[in-house]
């Protein structure tokens, strides 16, 4: 699920991102057309309902950067959906 969501962000596929985000936690405004270029994903660990990963990216007007997050997922209607995450 993590790799699919990363790809959806990189491709600007808002419908997929919304479908895979828990409806109680999904923000009303997603700006996937902000010019951010996604440069890579590294999954460090996945256990039970948590995934820890690093994303490399280039935001508009900035040089390359990255962030590391521990995300939480849950099952909803038989499918895994993103709940929330903490930057680490």
From TrEMBL:
Origin species, per record, is Deinococcus gobiensis (strain DSM 21396 / JCM 16679 / CGMCC 1.7299 / I-0)
Query: For the YchJ-like middle NTF2-like domain, which residue ranges apply?
Result: 1-85
Superkingdom? Bacteria
Instruction: Report the protein name in the record.
Output: Sec-C motif containing protein
Q: Where are the transmembrane segments?
A: none
| A Pfam family per the record | YchJ_M-like
InterPro entries xref list: NTF2-like_dom_sf, YchJ-like_M
């Amino acid at each position: 699920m993590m790799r699919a969501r990363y790809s959806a962000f990189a491709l600007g596929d808002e419908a997929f991102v919304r479908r895979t985000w828990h409806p109680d936690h999904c923000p009303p405004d997603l700006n996937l057309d902000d010019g951010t270029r996604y440069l890579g994903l590294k999954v460090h660990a996945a256990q039970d309902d948590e995934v820890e990963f690093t994303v490399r990216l280039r935001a508009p007007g900035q040089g390359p950067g990255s962030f590391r997050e521990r995300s939480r997922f849950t099952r909803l209607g038989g499918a895994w959906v993103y709940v929330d995450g903490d930057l680490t």
